[in-house]
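Bug report (template v2)

What were you trying to do?
Predict the complex of my protein with zinc ion.

What happened?
Run completed; filing so the output is reviewed.

Input:
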Amino acid sequence: MTILDEILKKIPKDAMITNTSYESANIVLYTKNKVFLLQGGDIIKRLVEDFKKRIDLRADPSIRVDAEKAKDIVNEIIPKEAEITQILIESARGVITIEAKKPGLAIGKDGDNLRKIKEQTLWVPFVRRESMIPSKITTNIRNVLYSDSEARRKFLDEVGKRIYEVRKSSGDDMWARISMLGGARQVGRSCSLLQTPESNVLIDCGVNVAAIGKYSFPYLSAPEFHIGDLDAVIITHSHLDHTGFLPYLFKMGYQGPVYCTEPTRDIMALLMLDYLQVSHGEHNKSVYSSADIKETIKHTITLEYGEVTDITPDVRVTLYNAGHILGSSLVHLHLGEGWHNLLITGDLKVKQTELLNPAHATFPRVETLIIESTYGAQDDVMEPRENCEKQLMEIVKETIKKKGKILIPVLGVGRAQEVVVILEKLFRGEKLDIPIYIDGMVWDVTAIHNAYPRFLNSDIREKIFYEDKDPFLAPIFKQVGSGKERAEVISGGPCVILATSGMLTGGPSISYLKELADSPKNNMVFVCYQAEGSLGNKIQKGEKEVDIDGDKVKIKLGVHTIAGLSGHADKNELVNYLQKIKPRPRKVIVVHGENSKCLSLASSLHKSFKIETVAPRNLDVLRLR
Ligand code: ZN
């Protein structure tokens, strides 16, 4: 008997259940009985407790009011001040999503407005916060997700059927192993395959942006990987070295779920589209198309931090804050009813930053830990944040005095928003009022940050809820969108310019550099990692004449590096994390670092904690127990 049959047996006959379906691990019951829909809450609550599954009760289509009428009722009940931007109707699921700039006002006191909407329409309403910063990309993602309600319902039902399949193996037959398909002893193309008797789960599927050709992609040709057997993909965070190859799976026919947080889904869509554009421009051919990116988005299932969910008959996943960038997650995997527990850090930050809380460190159980080691070597110790901020302020003041401009090349996601918040704070404190221009994708990503305050730390969340304190909305920030506006910035007065790309490998940061390089009045500040061979790296090392698009450019502007603003844990933080983590794992697998960094961290963790550590190479397979 399936779990659905068992649940149905416990529901009163007069509840008039007309249909049932899965929505991934959740169970949905449709009823024709209006009274049961509105008052059957206690019965459902008891079932949830008994079965430890989420159960939703929704109205059969025949008793719901017409969709257009429902929209009118929503507009009548929710006050104008809530600033509704969109009402999205999913007929196949009986769900209305209301997007509003003031979600608190939309929901009403104690959820009053939502209750009224449900009573009067018999649809189930949800409220989502719309970013205070307009961005086309987020609207487009919503439209892709909600465009085909019936297809989405079918997909979620298929996923649920797979999750609730009866296990073929008993507890004694349990085994688990993990294959490194990329990102071992390297930074880039992160991808690992978890296998059990019942499941094949991929964790991350990235590209190596710095490499060329086949070395850019994970080893999907490894003998243990069969795309037809893949049950689920879990994404730790949106950076391309963890997500860039994901659409390729869909191109190859994968139709299953991708689990991640909501901000990860939105930001990865943006980064993938950008990657497609760039790779198209460079080699004139791409490994996948925008249609494959669309498929990826359609197949994502988002999870909140701390939400426990089954993803196959013997794998249960929970995501926790990783502190690295917005929406970044530690992935906790509970295998075979507690037979083994695996924690994968993805990229991680152990200290609090301007934007995010430190990485989560308490878990019900952890036996094996897979940890990143980007800055895992003995001498990878970063400058304290306060010193970095002071240094940045000194450069700004000195430049203003000389009537120059400051260029800060940034990665679109993470560092850019961190620098935005720091500059806002410093400028307010010092009462400086020169403009800060934001160019490139940074603006869209900042808009996504504004849409998900619950993923930010409490300081910044508080500020976002009061518009006049929201650092992202501060009037000193000006968006630069066109070449004409760029020219005006260059011919104008003293200012700070944040522009992508962070390593001066393309994008608007290069256009600015070309114009600003000639004058010692100007300054450039590096705040992110400059990979060997990049233009940023050459200038950082002190080259005084560089080649930009075939032109010789003399570097006369001041060049500074502020290294302590990284979104990665440094060596001390990584060791500290092992100190903090509860319970302490028995085995640590070190990945996501250059060869020497992986080896160095594995060795220092072994010495400090007397636990088994290993630094596998790509294509190595490790058994978990
Ligand atoms: Zn990252």
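What did the reviewer find?
The longest strand covers residues 17-23. The pocket of zinc ion is lined by residues 237, 239, 324, 347 (CB under 6 Å).
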